[in-house]
Structures are given as C-alpha cells and as structure tokens.
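User: For my dataset I need records formatted as: sequence, then structure tokens, nothing else. Please produce one.
Assistant:
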Amino acid sequence: MSVCGKICHILRSETLLGVEWGFHSPSWNYNDFSFGVRGVVFEGKVTIRGKEFQDYYTIIMTNEFGEEVKRIHQVHETELVEILKANIDGSDSWKRIKELYYTPHVPLSVQ
C-alpha cells in the first residue's frame, strides 16, 4: 500500500473529517497527503508526509498565505489522529463546542 493510501485509511477509520475539521480539497501523491481544514485552532493546509515501509510521519501545517506555521516530525501512525486533533481543533475543543451550542433546551417556566 502506498504511503498516501495508508494515511487515508488511518484518517478514515478514526475521525469524522468533514464535521470535526472542516476537511476539504484533498490532494495526494505517492508519499504525501494534503487537505484543507477549518478547525477551531488552525485553518489552512495540512500535509502528511511519509516514506514507504515506515510507520512515522511528518505533519506540515501551512496558513492561507502558504507560510509554514508548524512542522511536527516523527509522528507514529498510532498517534497521528490525536496529534492532528490537538493541532487542528485543540485537544478537547470539539467537546467544548458541543457543550456550548448543543445543550438541550430547557424552557423557562411561566409564572
């Protein structure tokens, strides 16, 4: 399986990309997988780069101007989704958003 295929498999199995990260505009080649995100903490392009037959990746985050904002080396495939979540939406920001905006409506009592 190509590096890109492996990355896609990991991301698809672990998270709801469209909802949690505002996932859009995917592109790939043999060793890279890139996509745009509209997260709580980060908005821009994420590129995940790897080498065939290795389980470690480099995550490169660039802003809307194409400037590199962050580069994270030696990310093991078992940690990939958690590290992406922490850097795109913050560690528990999606949970906080749900608590703020999706709490059950409690009607006010009429006196």
